[in-house]
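Continuing from the previous page of notes. For each protein in this section, the sequence appears first, followed by its structure tokens. Read the first protein now.
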Amino acid sequence: MSADGCGAPAGGASGAAAGSSQAVVAGRVLHDGAPVARGYARLLGTGDEFVAEVPLADDGGFRFFAAPGSWTLRVLAPGGLRGERSVQAEYGRVAKADVTI
């Protein structure tokens, strides 16, 4: 378990690359062109249904394994920084979804 009590490793789970049978959503969070190393990325389903959350990695990175379909990423960081974007996940590919906040 991580020190912050979330339980997820910083940046999310590693593994699975393009061409596998996984659907992966991954990206980085940036603010004024620099990585945001403190905060959380959330994966939300239909109707803003909470699905998963990971703390951001030192490089602002995050990664989720998801079912194919449409998802919303919501990023929360200290100082009231917040961002959101939609992403489409498909089996066998990594959906790149950088978020600028």
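Done with the first. The second protein uses the same format. Note its length before scrolling.
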Amino acid sequence: MKNDFLIQCSRFCSNPVLQASLLSWLAAQFIKTILHLFTHQIHNVKELLEMLFWRTGGMPSSHSSLVTTMTTCIGFRSGVSSDLFILACCFILVVIRDAVGVRRSSGDQARVLNEIGTKLEKSKIIEFSPVKQINGHSPGEVCTGVILGFLIGLFFSCK
């Protein structure tokens, strides 16, 4: 029983679609981190690690890159008429719509709420605790992530 579990874990971790998708996400986060380093937007090691592994928003979109790589690999491995590829295409549309639309507008609204709350607190009208700002993506950031993801997926599929 334990041996079967280890075999399944090994198969899961050696799956080329998973490996390509994770590499795509890491590559996008790495590029994003390098760009932030060059524009002096990272000031300490904590910010560097957050940007490299966790922070959202920015160029390129790691979410878009990951799902595009996954969809590309599935298309090559299972065929573009497979149910799995159709599922991946629907998933990519949801992720991209969320990145450009919902998360971006939520972040913009949070920024405005924080500005208003800060002004009201300075005027001693209310006590205010800032709301979390979630960074969405511009269409250009998403397109760059999609291109990166497609190229990585293509590379993994052509091996």
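What the second structure shows: The mean pLDDT is 86. Residues 16-157 form one domain. We return to this in next week's lecture.
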